[in-house]
Prior knowledge:
- This protein is mostly helical.
- It has 4 helices and no strands.
- The chain has helices at residues 8-21, 26-38, 42-55, 60-72.
Amino acid sequence: MYRATGRYEEAVACYGRALALDPGYAWAHGSRALALEALGRVAEARADLDRALELDPAYGWARAQRARLVAEA
């Protein structure tokens, strides 16, 4: 909800709370990556996408987002 409405700082905080409860939640890593990217924190976004892919190598959306970030660098 926060990310969709442009409230990226709040989104990062919420995803962080979700990950504190379940560090293996690949979707939360992937979604937090987009909020971090929107804040200009691209290195952290890439790290979150890398972690999402470590947790779920078949996570195609995260793989595509990671490739996009690398191509835009």
